[in-house]
Amino acid sequence: MDEINICSSGRVISRVFVGDGIAALEEHLDPYRHVFAVMDSNVAMQCPVAQEIAEIMNHKGVPGKLIDASEDNKTMDTVMDICGWLLDNGADRDALVLAVGGGITSDMVGFAASIYKRGVRFAYVPTTLLSQVDAAIGGKTGVNFENYKNILGVIRQPEFTYICPQVLESLPYRDFCSGAAEMLKTFIIEDAGNYETAVGLLNAMHKEYVIVPEQDAAEYWSDCVSAHACELTPLIAAAVRVKAGIVSRDQFEKGERRKLNLGHTFAHAIETLARREAMTGDGAPEKTDITHGEAVAMGMALAARLSDRIFRNDMDTPSALEERISEDLRACGLNPDSPFDVEEMSQAMHKDKKAEGGKVHFVLIRSIGDVAMQDLTVDEVCRLLA
Length: 386
Ligand code: GLY
Known about the structure:
The protein is an alpha/beta fold. The chain has 16 helices and 11 strands.
């Protein structure tokens, strides 16, 4: 098992364990006397490892709560519901709240634990690739409010994050690919070697998956993840290591941590437009049904084009870097092409919560493994990308 620490002022503030089966979770919980578990109800039903976790919780006499961890339900109401349940079950200042689920679950449970009795301890068992490499690492917690994603929240570190790659065997292919986009993002930021390795592995898995008849796809995918676990696990650990390093140097996102938003300004705009289209448009799935990771893939392709315009004066569409990254994303089963044009995205980008003083901190790619931040107005970006 890999142990990766997140540090601040020379002190370990959060630990990430990667790689063992789920049974060892029990010993990581042993030091905590009062554990309360909150689990995504879908995960509880569909993930065999979650059923093993439920057995561990039963064995330890841990009270459990199921939540509906959907984007629509990522609200203060759900956080209050979790706090009410903690109160009803006598959770005290020495409680540890364990979240089992994807990023929506960890964001909400981490936030509830951070405000309950002015903050109790919490830990995560992330059950999606996206949460294993991103959402459950680094302490961002929060909920959506007034049509803004994650606008209410705090940065507060979990005691530990326990990553069991085996849970990915029951993760649908599309969700796996969404997580792969965040993994590739992390390697574009800081690890060119593992970027190549990840593209190679994800491409091999994608090629194996797409030839299987639809009716056998889910079962085949599970076997495929299991067969490639020994190559996937070190990549998950490598992505965690990159993120842990960045968070250790800049926990509260004053500078370097902004690099982790590579592609995200575009991605958030794409997600906002997709939600709007779902409510008002003709419902075409390519414009309404876009996951966060899929939007990040599209955002990274646009960030590559913007980078080429700025660093290399490459005015082609697609630019050379955009072409390379788009090709890699396609090889990994991701679509790099945004269904919305830059003009459509511009209004949503103006409203991005990360915009400060009319400028947005854009993350630009110098080369794979080397990024830089630059403050640009949305209008400048639209002009450069046109
Ligand atoms: N997901 C980006 C961050 O944690 O900073």
